[in-house]
Amino acid sequence: MNGGGPCLNWAALVPQTIHPVQVAIIEAMEWVGEPLSATLLQEMFDDPERCYLSILSYHMGKLARWRAVEPIRHRHVRGARETFYFLAPGMSLRARV
């Protein structure tokens, strides 16, 4: 609605709604350029003690629900299912010319 009231400040809203772990995931996936799982991401981060596997899995799931990343394959590891994701087309953070 544009009834003359204040406009929504998207630049202020987006940083408050996007979790820093999600930004780190997207940046890592863009940098690597190949499918990654939460386990592989945990190994890549400097401080794996801060980025628990459960936190990375949770945020990967949220990014998948938003279609920012796409699940492309699974593999079974020690009774669990590891999901590999790829950055969705158009989600690159690099400026396009």
Q: How would you characterize this protein structure?
A:
The chain is α+β, with helices and mostly antiparallel strands and 97 residues long. It has one domain (18-87): Orthogonal Bundle (Arc Repressor Mutant, subunit A). It has four helices and two strands; from the N terminus they run H-H-H-H-E-E. The chain has a two-stranded antiparallel sheet. Helix 3 packs across helix 4. The chain is elongated, with a radius of gyration of 16 Å.
What tags apply to this protein structure?
18% strand; two-stranded antiparallel sheet; alpha+beta; Arc Repressor Mutant, subunit A
Tally of individual helices: 4
The tally of strands reads 2
Radius of gyration: 16 Å
Main sheet: which strands, in order across?
Answer: 1-2
Per CATH, what is the topology? Arc Repressor Mutant, subunit A
Order of helices and strands: HHHHEE
Could you give the distance between the termini?
A: 32 Å
Can you say what the CATH homologous superfamily is? Winged helix-like DNA-binding domain superfamily/Winged helix DNA-binding domain
Specify the CATH class: Mainly Alpha
Name the overall outline.
Answer: elongated
| Strand portion | 15-25%
CATH architecture: Orthogonal Bundle
Please tell me the total number of domains.
1
Main sheet characteristics: 2 strands, antiparallel
Class inferred from helices and paired strands: alpha+beta
Residue windows where pLDDT falls under 50 for at least 5 positions = none
Mean pLDDT: 82
Helical proportion?
40-55%
